[in-house]
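C-alpha coordinates please, single chain.
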Amino acid sequence: MSSSTSAPEQSGENISKKAAKKEAAKLEKLRRKQEQEEAARKTSSLSLEDESFSGNYGDVTLTELQSTEDPSAGKWREAVEGKKWTDLSHLVEETVGSEVLIRGRVNTNRPVSNKKGFLVLRQSGFTVQCVATQSEETKVGVNFIKYLKQLSNESFVDVMGVVVLPKEEVKGTTQQVEIQVRKVYCVNSALPKLPLLVEDASRSEKEMEAGLSGANQDTRLNNRVIDLRTPANQAIFRIQGQVQKAFREFLDSKDFVEIHTPKLMAGSSEGGSAVFRLDYKGQPACLAQSPQ
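Here you go.
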Protein backbone atom coordinates (compact mmCIF):
# COMPACT_ATOMS: atom_id res chain seq x y z
CA MET A 1 0.00 0.00 0.00
CA SER A 2 2.77 2.37 0.93
CA SER A 3 4.74 1.64 -2.25
CA SER A 4 1.73 2.25 -4.48
CA THR A 5 1.09 5.53 -2.69
CA SER A 6 4.68 6.82 -2.95
CA ALA A 7 4.92 6.19 -6.70
CA PRO A 8 2.17 8.67 -7.63
CA GLU A 9 3.65 11.17 -5.18
CA GLN A 10 7.08 10.94 -6.85
CA SER A 11 5.47 11.21 -10.26
CA GLY A 12 3.59 14.30 -9.12
CA GLU A 13 6.80 15.86 -7.80
CA ASN A 14 8.56 15.24 -11.13
CA ILE A 15 5.68 16.81 -13.02
CA SER A 16 5.67 19.85 -10.73
CA LYS A 17 9.44 20.30 -11.14
CA LYS A 18 9.16 20.07 -14.92
CA ALA A 19 6.28 22.52 -14.89
CA ALA A 20 8.26 24.91 -12.70
CA LYS A 21 11.27 24.72 -15.03
CA LYS A 22 9.03 25.24 -18.03
CA GLU A 23 7.37 28.21 -16.38
CA ALA A 24 10.75 29.68 -15.41
CA ALA A 25 12.03 29.28 -18.98
CA LYS A 26 8.88 30.95 -20.28
CA LEU A 27 9.32 33.88 -17.89
CA GLU A 28 13.01 34.23 -18.84
CA LYS A 29 12.09 34.25 -22.52
CA LEU A 30 9.44 36.89 -21.86
CA ARG A 31 11.93 38.99 -19.88
CA ARG A 32 14.49 38.89 -22.70
CA LYS A 33 11.83 39.81 -25.23
CA GLN A 34 10.77 42.78 -23.12
CA GLU A 35 14.40 43.92 -22.78
CA GLN A 36 14.89 43.69 -26.54
CA GLU A 37 11.69 45.63 -27.17
CA GLU A 38 12.75 48.28 -24.65
CA ALA A 39 16.19 48.59 -26.27
CA ALA A 40 14.59 48.84 -29.71
CA ARG A 41 12.18 51.48 -28.41
CA LYS A 42 15.02 53.55 -26.99
CA THR A 43 17.02 53.25 -30.21
CA SER A 44 13.98 54.23 -32.25
CA SER A 45 13.32 57.12 -29.90
CA LEU A 46 16.91 58.31 -30.24
CA SER A 47 16.74 58.01 -34.02
CA LEU A 48 13.60 60.14 -34.08
CA GLU A 49 15.10 62.65 -31.66
CA ASP A 50 18.45 62.69 -33.46
CA GLU A 51 17.15 65.42 -35.74
CA SER A 52 16.66 67.66 -32.72
CA PHE A 53 20.22 66.81 -31.63
CA SER A 54 21.66 67.88 -35.00
CA GLY A 55 22.57 71.28 -33.59
CA ASN A 56 25.05 69.62 -31.25
CA TYR A 57 27.55 68.63 -33.96
CA GLY A 58 28.74 69.58 -37.42
CA ASP A 59 31.28 71.54 -39.45
CA VAL A 60 31.78 75.23 -38.69
CA THR A 61 31.09 77.45 -41.69
CA LEU A 62 33.15 80.45 -42.73
CA THR A 63 30.09 82.66 -42.20
CA GLU A 64 29.91 81.59 -38.55
CA LEU A 65 33.61 82.31 -38.00
CA GLN A 66 33.30 85.77 -39.54
CA SER A 67 29.97 86.72 -37.93
CA THR A 68 31.38 87.58 -34.52
CA GLU A 69 28.55 89.99 -33.72
CA ASP A 70 25.68 87.71 -34.76
CA PRO A 71 25.06 84.91 -32.21
CA SER A 72 22.38 83.40 -34.46
CA ALA A 73 24.71 82.99 -37.45
CA GLY A 74 24.78 79.21 -36.96
CA LYS A 75 24.68 76.35 -34.48
CA TRP A 76 28.37 76.66 -33.60
CA ARG A 77 28.10 80.40 -33.02
CA GLU A 78 25.03 79.87 -30.83
CA ALA A 79 26.82 77.16 -28.83
CA VAL A 80 30.02 79.10 -28.08
CA GLU A 81 28.55 82.58 -27.73
CA GLY A 82 29.29 83.93 -24.25
CA LYS A 83 31.17 80.78 -23.21
CA LYS A 84 34.66 80.86 -21.71
CA TRP A 85 37.39 78.81 -23.36
CA THR A 86 39.38 76.45 -21.16
CA ASP A 87 42.98 75.44 -21.84
CA LEU A 88 43.65 71.72 -21.75
CA SER A 89 46.40 72.31 -19.19
CA HIS A 90 43.75 73.58 -16.74
CA LEU A 91 41.69 70.37 -16.87
CA VAL A 92 42.51 68.92 -13.45
CA GLU A 93 40.55 67.22 -10.66
CA GLU A 94 39.39 70.59 -9.29
CA THR A 95 37.37 71.12 -12.50
CA VAL A 96 35.38 67.87 -12.14
CA GLY A 97 31.66 68.49 -12.55
CA SER A 98 32.02 71.74 -14.48
CA GLU A 99 31.02 72.28 -18.10
CA VAL A 100 33.91 73.37 -20.31
CA LEU A 101 34.53 74.52 -23.86
CA ILE A 102 37.85 73.35 -25.29
CA ARG A 103 39.62 73.46 -28.65
CA GLY A 104 42.34 71.21 -29.97
CA ARG A 105 43.54 68.90 -32.70
CA VAL A 106 42.33 65.32 -32.96
CA ASN A 107 45.29 63.29 -31.75
CA THR A 108 43.54 59.92 -32.00
CA ASN A 109 40.02 58.85 -32.92
CA ARG A 110 38.91 55.51 -31.49
CA PRO A 111 35.31 54.49 -32.24
CA VAL A 112 34.20 51.66 -29.94
CA SER A 113 30.71 50.91 -31.25
CA ASN A 114 27.70 52.54 -32.88
CA LYS A 115 26.81 53.97 -29.48
CA LYS A 116 30.17 55.12 -28.15
CA GLY A 117 33.32 56.86 -29.36
CA PHE A 118 36.57 58.21 -27.95
CA LEU A 119 38.56 61.25 -29.06
CA VAL A 120 41.91 62.38 -27.70
CA LEU A 121 42.44 66.10 -28.22
CA ARG A 122 45.87 67.76 -28.21
CA GLN A 123 46.68 71.38 -27.45
CA SER A 124 50.20 72.76 -26.91
CA GLY A 125 51.56 69.43 -25.75
CA PHE A 126 48.64 68.62 -23.43
CA THR A 127 46.14 65.85 -24.23
CA VAL A 128 42.75 64.87 -22.83
CA GLN A 129 40.33 62.05 -23.56
CA CYS A 130 36.79 62.88 -24.68
CA VAL A 131 34.00 60.29 -24.51
CA ALA A 132 30.72 60.47 -26.42
CA THR A 133 27.96 58.05 -25.37
CA GLN A 134 24.62 57.73 -27.11
CA SER A 135 21.80 58.56 -24.70
CA GLU A 136 18.89 60.91 -24.20
CA GLU A 137 20.56 62.44 -21.15
CA THR A 138 23.65 63.55 -23.07
CA LYS A 139 21.57 64.44 -26.17
CA VAL A 140 23.93 62.35 -28.26
CA GLY A 141 22.19 60.47 -31.05
CA VAL A 142 23.08 57.95 -33.73
CA ASN A 143 24.23 60.53 -36.27
CA PHE A 144 26.32 62.29 -33.62
CA ILE A 145 28.41 59.13 -33.15
CA LYS A 146 28.66 58.69 -36.93
CA TYR A 147 29.92 62.26 -37.27
CA LEU A 148 32.44 61.69 -34.49
CA LYS A 149 33.80 58.58 -36.20
CA GLN A 150 34.62 60.38 -39.46
CA LEU A 151 36.73 63.13 -37.85
CA SER A 152 40.26 62.66 -39.18
CA ASN A 153 43.45 63.00 -37.17
CA GLU A 154 44.85 66.55 -36.92
CA SER A 155 41.42 68.09 -37.55
CA PHE A 156 40.79 71.22 -35.50
CA VAL A 157 37.69 70.74 -33.33
CA ASP A 158 35.75 72.44 -30.55
CA VAL A 159 34.23 70.27 -27.82
CA MET A 160 31.72 71.16 -25.13
CA GLY A 161 31.22 68.74 -22.27
CA VAL A 162 31.33 67.95 -18.58
CA VAL A 163 34.57 67.12 -16.78
CA VAL A 164 34.45 63.77 -14.99
CA LEU A 165 36.95 61.67 -13.08
CA PRO A 166 37.31 58.21 -14.69
CA LYS A 167 37.26 55.09 -12.53
CA GLU A 168 40.57 53.91 -13.97
CA GLU A 169 43.71 55.82 -14.87
CA VAL A 170 43.65 57.21 -18.40
CA LYS A 171 46.67 55.94 -20.29
CA GLY A 172 48.25 57.92 -23.10
CA THR A 173 47.04 61.39 -22.05
CA THR A 174 48.62 64.10 -19.93
CA GLN A 175 45.35 65.01 -18.17
CA GLN A 176 43.81 62.45 -15.81
CA VAL A 177 40.22 63.61 -16.28
CA GLU A 178 37.72 62.88 -19.04
CA ILE A 179 35.29 65.04 -20.97
CA GLN A 180 31.77 63.66 -21.34
CA VAL A 181 30.98 65.15 -24.73
CA ARG A 182 27.77 67.11 -25.26
CA LYS A 183 28.66 69.01 -28.43
CA VAL A 184 31.43 68.77 -31.03
CA TYR A 185 32.16 71.03 -33.99
CA CYS A 186 34.90 70.73 -36.60
CA VAL A 187 36.54 74.11 -37.27
CA ASN A 188 39.04 72.84 -39.83
CA SER A 189 39.07 69.32 -41.22
CA ALA A 190 42.37 67.61 -42.06
CA LEU A 191 42.83 65.24 -44.99
CA PRO A 192 41.59 61.71 -44.24
CA LYS A 193 45.02 60.32 -45.12
CA LEU A 194 48.02 62.44 -44.13
CA PRO A 195 51.56 61.90 -45.47
CA LEU A 196 52.84 61.82 -41.88
CA LEU A 197 51.22 61.04 -38.54
CA VAL A 198 52.37 62.75 -35.36
CA GLU A 199 52.29 59.37 -33.64
CA ASP A 200 54.73 57.91 -36.19
CA ALA A 201 56.99 60.96 -36.17
CA SER A 202 57.19 60.76 -32.36
CA ARG A 203 58.66 57.26 -32.31
CA SER A 204 62.36 56.70 -31.70
CA GLU A 205 64.68 54.54 -33.80
CA LYS A 206 64.62 51.91 -31.06
CA GLU A 207 60.82 51.69 -31.25
CA MET A 208 60.96 51.39 -35.04
CA GLU A 209 63.54 48.61 -34.76
CA ALA A 210 61.09 46.82 -32.48
CA GLY A 211 58.59 46.73 -35.35
CA LEU A 212 56.49 49.84 -34.72
CA SER A 213 55.73 52.13 -37.65
CA GLY A 214 57.75 55.32 -37.82
CA ALA A 215 59.03 57.97 -40.22
CA ASN A 216 62.45 58.55 -41.75
CA GLN A 217 64.18 61.91 -41.82
CA ASP A 218 63.20 62.75 -45.41
CA THR A 219 59.51 62.17 -44.69
CA ARG A 220 59.70 64.29 -41.56
CA LEU A 221 61.51 67.17 -43.30
CA ASN A 222 59.15 67.06 -46.30
CA ASN A 223 56.22 67.38 -43.88
CA ARG A 224 57.84 69.66 -41.34
CA VAL A 225 54.60 71.40 -40.39
CA ILE A 226 53.33 68.10 -38.95
CA ASP A 227 56.71 66.99 -37.59
CA LEU A 228 56.92 70.14 -35.45
CA ARG A 229 53.83 68.99 -33.53
CA THR A 230 55.60 66.04 -31.90
CA PRO A 231 56.12 66.22 -28.11
CA ALA A 232 59.92 66.27 -28.54
CA ASN A 233 59.94 69.23 -30.93
CA GLN A 234 57.37 71.09 -28.84
CA ALA A 235 59.58 70.57 -25.77
CA ILE A 236 62.64 71.90 -27.63
CA PHE A 237 60.84 75.11 -28.59
CA ARG A 238 59.52 75.60 -25.07
CA ILE A 239 62.99 75.19 -23.56
CA GLN A 240 64.45 77.61 -26.11
CA GLY A 241 61.71 80.11 -25.34
CA GLN A 242 62.31 79.89 -21.59
CA VAL A 243 66.08 80.35 -22.03
CA GLN A 244 65.54 83.44 -24.20
CA LYS A 245 63.00 84.75 -21.69
CA ALA A 246 65.50 84.31 -18.82
CA PHE A 247 68.22 86.18 -20.73
CA ARG A 248 65.83 88.98 -21.65
CA GLU A 249 64.47 89.35 -18.10
CA PHE A 250 68.00 89.46 -16.67
CA LEU A 251 69.16 92.12 -19.14
CA ASP A 252 65.95 94.11 -18.63
CA SER A 253 66.61 94.09 -14.88
CA LYS A 254 70.01 95.68 -15.61
CA ASP A 255 68.41 98.44 -17.72
CA PHE A 256 69.67 97.10 -21.04
CA VAL A 257 67.82 98.26 -24.16
CA GLU A 258 66.98 95.67 -26.81
CA ILE A 259 67.75 96.83 -30.36
CA HIS A 260 67.56 95.20 -33.78
CA THR A 261 70.47 96.23 -35.99
CA PRO A 262 70.58 95.68 -39.76
CA LYS A 263 72.88 92.88 -40.89
CA LEU A 264 75.04 93.67 -43.91
CA MET A 265 76.61 91.17 -46.29
CA ALA A 266 79.14 91.55 -49.06
CA GLY A 267 76.84 89.84 -51.56
CA SER A 268 73.30 88.60 -52.08
CA SER A 269 72.50 85.57 -49.94
CA GLU A 270 69.85 84.29 -52.35
CA GLY A 271 71.59 85.13 -55.61
CA GLY A 272 68.57 87.09 -56.83
CA SER A 273 68.11 90.68 -57.93
CA ALA A 274 65.36 91.64 -55.44
CA VAL A 275 67.72 92.63 -52.64
CA PHE A 276 68.45 95.93 -50.92
CA ARG A 277 71.86 97.12 -52.16
CA LEU A 278 73.88 99.98 -50.72
CA ASP A 279 77.33 101.46 -50.63
CA TYR A 280 79.13 100.75 -47.37
CA LYS A 281 82.32 102.78 -47.01
CA GLY A 282 83.05 102.55 -50.70
CA GLN A 283 82.21 98.85 -51.01
CA PRO A 284 78.98 97.24 -52.33
CA ALA A 285 76.85 95.58 -49.65
CA CYS A 286 73.42 93.99 -49.25
CA LEU A 287 71.01 93.61 -46.38
CA ALA A 288 70.92 90.01 -45.16
CA GLN A 289 67.78 88.09 -46.09
CA SER A 290 65.93 85.64 -43.90
CA PRO A 291 66.28 82.03 -45.10
CA GLN A 292 63.40 80.80 -47.23
